[in-house]
Amino acid sequence: MSIWGxxxxxxxxxxxxxxxxxxxxxxxxxxxxxxxQLSHHLLENLTPLGALQTLVLWFAVWLVWQxxxxxxxxxxxxxxxxxxxxxxxxxxxxVMSAVLPDAFGERGLIFAxxxxxxxxxxxxxxxxxxxSNHALSKNFxxxxxxxxxxxxxxxxxxxxxxxxxxLFWTAAVACEYFSPMIGLxxxxxxxxxxxxxxxxxxxxxxxxxxxVIVALGESILVTGATIGHMAAWEMPTLIAFLVxxxxxxxxWWLYFDTSSQAGTEAIVTSNDPGRIGAxxxxxxxxxxxxxxxxxxxxxxxxxxxxxxxxxxSLAVLIGGPMTYLLGNGIYKTVVYRRFPFSHMIGLAxxxxxxxxxxxxxxxxxxxxxxxxxxxxxxxxxxxxxxxxRQHAAGHAE
Length: 397
Fold this sequence. Notes:
Layout: H1 22-44, H2 48-74, H3 80-98, H4 108-130, H5 137-159, H6 162-178, H7 201-228, H8 235-256, H9 260-268, H10 273-303, H11 311-317, H12 319-336, H13 341-357, H14 362-396
């Protein structure tokens, strides 16, 4: 008997789609703060090194959320032990998020210790509860092994100087991101098969969708906060504010208007939902990264609409929409089995815009990238709806 009376903490598999519970939404609030911290870190460190550091920190934030998401897909968050575990991860995540801006400075060890504690502690809790005979036990034992390896790298990075910290933490991210691709293989422990990952597809898809909402919410927050801090609301500033809002609206439309429900169905109807679920997490890290970068571009354009375009501002003003479109395109390739034509055109137009960007200002580039996103969203919506009508007409005949 465990201290929890051997209560069954697993979600019921009754053939119905598992719902996202309020405790999971509450848990996600920490990541609103984390995404805001990341966008501020990137804004204050608009250099190649700063961008690489922000990327590593973003992968860390995403991975700890992703691994927790998989746990709450298998385990019932309404069960008291799971709820308490989530609250512990949430508290530690809040501390981790608080020190994000100085993770490559004086507070690197605090960041690393919080991160390793969340990843290892949560997985150890699951391993101890499942025991050795459960069907999921081997999978979580392998996962724990990889997280211990990565945890050692996180701590080593936290103890190292700045130049070595990035190397250690990049290796740690690689361990956690790529190990599921090889079935969490470890010597003497074998590997997991994705067919064994009996996930609730609708729940996992909805969790990913909600994180996109979290990121878009942060983008809206940055837009409102930036104009709120402006001493004078001149016309270029107001136009940049409107452009930023329309850009966020276009990003929402591109993701949610045509593909969110289809994404849910792609996992639910798949013969290998575990593999599709893993693909979802691999692609959404790109989508949300695009939102974060675009938020930084919005802040620059609102604060300095007439500002000269340099390589740093160009990287975020065009790089954000490009990253978002690319991530969406890859995600829709998983869902629909093809890369959307609208996204190809959008990416091509954004690439063509790069050499001309240096001839104008930040507001103009923000406006043009937003126009491209809106055009891609409209074309995508028209194309999907036309295809749906043709499909329905074919069935009617």
